[in-house]
Amino acid sequence: MSVPANVPILTSxxxxxxxxxxxxxxxxxxxxxxxxxxxxxxxxxxxxAGSPILILCGPGNNGGDGYVAAxxxxxxxxxxxxxxxxxxxxxxxRAARALWTGAVEPLDRDLAPAALIVDALFGVGLSRPLPYxxxxxxxxxxxxxxxxxxxxxxxxxxxxxxxxxxxxADVTVALGALxxxxxxxxxxxxxxxxxxxxxxxxxxxxxxxLPSVSSTKPDVAAHKFSRGMVLVRAGPMPGAAGLAxxxxxxxxxxxxxxxxxxxxxxxxxxxxxxxGYADRLGDARIGxxxxxxxxxxxDALDDDVMAALDAGKPLVLDAAAIAAAxxxxxxxxxxxxxxxxxHEGEFARAFPGLSGSKIxxxxxxxxxxxAVVVYKGADTIIAAPxxxxxxxxxxxxxxxxxxxxxxxxxxxxxMLARGGDAFDAAVAAVGWxxxxxxxxxxxxxxDDxxxDDxxRECND
Length: 460
Known about the structure:
The chain is α/β, with parallel strands linked by helices. Helices cover 37% and strands 16% of the residues.
């Protein structure tokens, strides 16, 4: 399962608007369909490698794309068949069907399979569960390689849900832009490898996939404070704050102070008595403060969060510190740059009652908090109050272990302490986190993410 890096994501509504804008600019929808069909045919040709191809066409424009692909594959000499769920129901689909000179079989349980199945049944147009009879017919094709057009049948393109059982794809070709279904659970695993076909639609917008990780070297005139000074506030479980402080240093901070713990994971980290926390908050060199790792709900947590907010320093808030800070953050209306890093349970406690996809909920939370939200999980979503979204799918399943969230908080602190945009800092931190986990793989524990041997490997 994979998606291309740093490419646009459009909801079904945004996709229809982009198609309409394209048509208004002089590129007809018929031409877009021809381009889509050509992209599908190219990928199907490579996947089939000379084997027979069966294209399943629905009644809408997704089916029209399938008819175009069938015609182009036949012209190349491919052994291609078409099976239709129903007669074309749109003008574009009818025109595409008219140019296909081969037979059209009914999509029923007697349909003979082929080595490669091209699923052009519904795409982004699906708005309800598949009929039971169709599910049975599709299940009869199981075990063959499947290329889905835009999204697999049985999957809602906006990623809110899947209507089980969908027809899972080995490869999905996204037309014009990725869709939320490609990057969100529970739908993304059904899409397999996602490829983007750039068919000439202006897919500019506010949602993208995670960019490729690039290592940024310090400026030649850099010093430890210009690289960013991070203050980590330890709670009753100081090991979590220790992980956050170690991660901040590994992620590029030049100076890290661990307040409230008598043991620092590295000699380069300054461990201080917690009594000096208020004084440290007044240090003008501090570029970011991290509160929350290993710090359960308590009056002490509330006091430490309020002190950090009063100091006006850029903040990373994790775990219980998120809900503790929310009322004040909302009142500050973005005056204090902040990154919130909740997992599913923490998000539900801090932002109850939100609905829609994970992207919708992350955006609503970011708008309320006036802060960047890193909604963690296998399908991590980074959302900004201004509507920007980055989807980090797939992450690394090896990060599903205790303490890795504390490491992410530390990386966010390091990126934020450099100055600049909090959203960009969060995106960089999530990319750093996933890349390090990918290098370690099986057996990963949170401490490995900040270990010395990994640093040497990264520098080799």
